[in-house]
Amino acid sequence: xxxxxxxxxxxxxxxxxxxxxxxxxxxxxxxxxxxxxxxxxxxxxxxxxxxxxxxxxxxxxxxxxxxxxxxxxxxxxxxxxxxxxxxxxxxxxxxxxxxxxxxxxxxxxxxxxxxxxxxxxxxxxxxxxxxxxxxxxxxxxxxxxxxxxxxxxxxxxxxxxxxxxxxxxxxxxxxxxxxxxxxxxxxxxxxxxxxxxxxxxxxxxxxxxxxxxxxxxxxxxxxxxxxxxxxxxxxxxxxxxxxxxxxxxxxxxxxxxxxxxxxxxxxxxxxxxxxxxxxxxxxxxxxxxxxxxxxxxxxxxxxxxxxxxxxxxxxxxxxxxxxxxxxxxxxxxxxxxxxxxxxxxxxxxxxxxxxxxxxxxxxxxxxxxxxxxxxxxxxxxxxxxxxxxxxxxxxxxxxxxxxxxxxxxxxxxxxxx
Length: 417
What we know:
Blueprint: H1 2-19, E1 22-23, H2 25-35, H3 40-57, E2 63-72, E3 92-105, H4 109-176, H5 183-216, E4 225-226, H6 242-262, E5 268-279, E6 290-300, H7 308-374, H8 380-415
Parallel strand pairs: 1-4
Antiparallel strand pairs: 2-3, 3-5, 5-6
């Protein structure tokens, strides 16, 4: 019978464990990178870039223009010879023309424009990656705050259980006259205060969970099990920061723009054709509507641009120097942040060592206080004071442990893990 009961309990516990949602810090990282609204801009940027590339490619296609005009001339060319039979043009003239221009040679400027747009897309998308990467520290703050709430709740439960057990002893001592009357009221009041603390912890945790849920775009609630991460730090980054990749892509974009500028002054060869109807047509001496057409090629070459092209290239070189300077500043700030976190990790580790010593001392004091309370030497208020001191010391140890893991997690993010 006992065996059957044990199997049933294990089965029920397994079902409850399966039904309880669990989540890890790494999963939160993945979810925020996948579900944060900013991610939608990646597809929007791709769609925008595709349209821009299609627009650039239209330069390779024939360009058609339609032109129609009706004019009245105050004076027209007259033939000074009499009896020639040639009538002067009409004062009112009309013309409708359809012109077609076809780019034959462009010196690679269209391909250069395409590469600029492709470089722009890579830069813009990497900028989104940088923004998403920065969200990891927000995830860290929320996640470890939730873990701290859970640890504080567990400690408070232990304190509550200890007080409830002590309350029975005190009531028994009051009944036998070994403990002063009303001593149990002090413990009961402390138990009520603990209930208030439970409520505060739960409210704070609910706010944290709701905020994290909104940030990562995934439904979480108070019953979600937040796994304690195992974080190790390394002096060697495992991956480059997205900011460093962004700086490199910005420089590549500048280089592509340099290539485009170099091709701006290259001669361009175009073929053209135009046809239409006019009164008069190409024969200015025929005052009737006549069809006409022209066909030819033309060369466009900006021989002298007042050094505009050169100044554009110089401006890009300055921009490249600015990016190098931004990279240097970023690396310096990163080094400073890593150094600060290293010192913080060392400081918290030392505090944890001291916390353990304090807790051992507080336990010894509480043990002696319990004996004194049983023999009526001290009041329950003194006992509760020492119990609270132990609880606060244990809570400080828990807080320092969580802060240590948070500092390690932030250190890894700054380093590029």
